[in-house]
Amino acid sequence: MIHSHALTIAGRIMRQIVRDRRTLALIMVVPVVVMTIIWLSFPPQQGLLDYIAPALLATLALFFGFLLTGISFLRERAQGTLERLWASPVSRLDIVVGYLLGFFIFALVQSLIIVLFTIYALDVHYRGDLWQIFVFQVVVLIGAINLGILVSAFARNEFQMVQFIPLIILPQVFLSGLLWPVEQMNDYLQWIARFLPLTYAVRGLRDIMLRGKTLTDTWFDLTILAVFAVGISIVTALSLRRRNSG
Fold first, then answer.
1. How far apart are CA 144 and CA 62, in angstroms?
2. Most buried residue, 46, 129, 182, 201, by CB count within 10 Å?
C-alpha cells in the first residue's frame, strides 16, 4: 500500500506541473509535432512508417519520460525542495515513489497522446490489441522516469542534464533495433544491445503491433523491462541517500 507521504509528494508535483502552463503545453504539443515531422519524412505508399512506428513509440516514451523527469527533478533539488523533504519524516521509498507517481501521470498522458495520434491521426496500421500496447508503454515509462530521477541526481544544472542524453539515450537509439536489426550488427554491439532496456521495448512492441502477439507472448521482454524499472528504483533510492547524507 502506498504511504500517505508518497501521495502528498506526488500531489505537490502534479499541482506544480499543472500550474506551469508552458510545460503542460509542451508535454501535449511536442510529441504531436515530432510524430508529424517523422510521418512527413516517410513515403506513405511504402508502408515504412507502419514498420518503424512500434520502435518510435518505445523510443519516444523513453526519451520524453527521461527528459521530463530529469529536468523537473533537477529543479526540485535546485529549489531546495528535496532537502526539505529529507528534514521531514519521510523515507527514501516515500520520495522515490512520490516523485515516480507525480511524474508518471504526465508522462503517461504524453505517451497516450503519442500512441493515439500515431494510430488514428497518422493512420498507422497495427495488429495487436491497443490496451496491450498501452500496458507495454507503461512499463517502459516507469523505467524511463526512474532513470531520469537517477541521472538528475548527478547533474548540477539543466545543461548537464541535457548532456546525459547523448550518453544515456543515443546509444540505445542506435543499438536497440530502431534503425537496423540487432541481428545484423557486429557481435560486440549485439552483446551491448542485450543490456539496453530499449532493445526489449522495441522488440516487444514490434511483436505486438506487427505480428499480433500478446503480452503473454512477449513475457520475456516485459519481464526484462520490469526488472530494469525495479532495479533502477532501488539504485535511485540508494543514490539519493548517498547524495544527501554526505
1. 5
2. 201
